[in-house]
Amino acid sequence: MFRSLLILLAAAPLTGSAPPKDVDMKPPLTLEASLSSLGGNRGGRAFLSVRLVATAGEAAVMTDRFTAVVERTEAKATVTIRPTQRKDSQGRAVIPSASTLGVVKLRPNEVAAVSVPTTDAPPGANPSVNNLDAAVSAAAAGKLELTVVYEVPDAWAKRFGLTATTVSGVATITEPKEKPADDRR
User: Fold this and answer.
1) Phi and psi dihedrals of 26, rounded to 5?
2) In the chain, what is the straight-line distance between the N-terminal and C-terminal CA atoms, in Å?
3) Alpha carbon distance 114, 95 (integer Å)
4) Which residues does the chain have with pLDDT short of 70?
5) What is the pLDDT of residues 131-178, one digit of tens each?
6) Which site among 17, 65, 89, 146 is 20 to 30 Å from 117 CA-CA?
7) Domain residue spans in the chain?
8) What does the pLDDT read at residue 87?
């Protein structure tokens, strides 16, 4: 009897225990963001590129149908991209088709490009301060630091088979590539 109890205890999983200290608990994703501009310092349009990188195990990510919310101060801006949530005229949630969300299943060290939405300033706000284009342009010009946050809530993750997570990263400025010289003579 004692032997059976000992075997049962040894085989039973430990619940509520913390992972060993030598195990690195990485988040499932990291976010990389970069800023580039057309026209260089001549006032061309700036672009924000966002990539999600799987770091630990597999992750299912959404790459399309986002809303961007911009919060900005004098020296910093945060762009939060989250699933677009719409309502019909009667206040009911309009649920998108799973195929329109651009779901990508990533394995470790694989990357998915996120379609960054454009946004208008909220009603009554100063559009030059709050809109996405203005924040991206100012960050690409080195006038402020831009942090990008990717957010998928639990409810969306469960409904569409996504990885529920919030990850962020500071956008880096990429140097414009020089246009190759025209060799036609």
Assistant:
1) -80, 150
2) 95
3) 20
4) 1-25, 39-44, 118-130, 176-185
5) 888 899 999 999 999 999 999 999 999 999 999 999 999 999 987 655
6) 89
7) 26-173
8) 92
Tokens of 53: 């990188």
pLDDT for 176 equals 60
Q: Which DSSP category does 22 fall into? A: T
Residue 131, both tokens? 């809109």
Measured at the CA of 172, the angle between CA 46 and CA 140, to 5 degrees, comes to 30
CA 86 from centre of chain: 20
User: 163 CB contacts (<8 Å, ≥6 apart)?
Assistant: 28, 29, 59, 60, 61, 152, 157
- Sort strands 145-152 and 76-83 into parallel, antiparallel or unpaired: parallel
Q: Would you say 51 and 104 are in contact if contact means Cβ atoms under 8 Å apart?
A: no
**175 to each of 13, 96, 139, how far by Cα in Å?**
53, 37, 13
- Of 50, 77, 53, 55, which is closest to residue 66 (Cα–Cα)? 50
Amino acid at position 41, single letter: N
The per-residue DSSP string of 126-160 comes to -HHHHSHHHHHHHHHTTSSEEEEEEEE-HHHHHHH
| Measured distance CA(96)–CA(83) in Å, rounded | 10
